[in-house]
């Protein structure tokens, strides 16, 4: 039977029991709010909230195993780290 009107959803990765989400976080106490990381993120996960930059953990992919682009451009050592 063919069902009409149903749209296929794009496959999304699911967390399995025991798995942890991958994400980076910004240390607000050392971030200078220079904005360099925002434009490097391939998933648009970095944005300004108030006067600080934050990383949206639900969309950060840690650059899929490549060196994190946000970390590479951040001028402050250890400002961006893994959650
Ligand atoms: S690790 Fe990659 S995907 Fe995650 S915030 Fe940094 S640049 Fe974006
Ligand atoms: S590049 Fe580093 S210092 Fe600049 S806004 Fe991003 S986290 Fe903050």
Describe what this molecule looks like in 3D.
The protein has 83 residues and is mainly beta. The chain has a single domain (24-82), classed as Alpha-Beta Plaits, CATH 3.30.70. Helices cover 6% and strands 17% of the residues. The strands form two sheets. Strands 1-4 form a two-stranded antiparallel sheet. A hairpin with a 2-residue loop joins β2 (46-49) and β3. The radius of gyration is 16 Å and the shape is globular. Bound molecules: iron/sulfur cluster (2 copies). One iron/sulfur cluster binds at residues 24, 40-43, 45-46, 55, 60-63, 68-70.
Could you name the key traits of this structure?
83 residues; mainly beta; Alpha-Beta Plaits; two-stranded antiparallel sheet; 1 helix; 4 strands; globular; binds iron/sulfur cluster
Q: List bound small molecules.
A: iron/sulfur cluster
Mean pLDDT score: 84
Measured distance between first and last alpha carbons: 46 Å
Number of domains: 1
Classification by helices and strands? mainly beta
**Could you give a short account of the major beta sheet?**
2 strands, antiparallel
Report the count of strand segments. Answer: 4
Please tell me what the overall shape is. Answer: globular
Q: Are there runs of 5+ residues with pLDDT below 50, and where?
A: 5-16
Helicity range: under 10%
Order of helices and strands: EEEHE
CATH architecture: 2-Layer Sandwich
Please report the first level of CATH classification, the CATH class. Alpha Beta
CATH fold topology = Alpha-Beta Plaits
Spatial arrangement of strands, main beta sheet:
1-4
If helices are DSSP runs of H or I spanning 4 or more residues, what is the number of helices? Answer: 1
Radius of gyration: 16 Å
Percent in strands: 15-25%
């Amino acid at each position: 039977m063919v069902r009409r009107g149903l749209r296929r959803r794009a496959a999304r990765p699911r967390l399995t029991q025991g798995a942890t989400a991958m994400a980076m976080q910004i240390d607000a106490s050392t971030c200078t709010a220079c904005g360099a990381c925002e434009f490097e993120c391939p998933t648009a996960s970095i944005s300004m909230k108030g006067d600080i930059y934050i990383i949206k953990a639900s969309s950060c992919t840690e650059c899929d195993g490549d060196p994190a682009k946000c970390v590479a451009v951040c001028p402050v050592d250890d400002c961006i780290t893994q959650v």
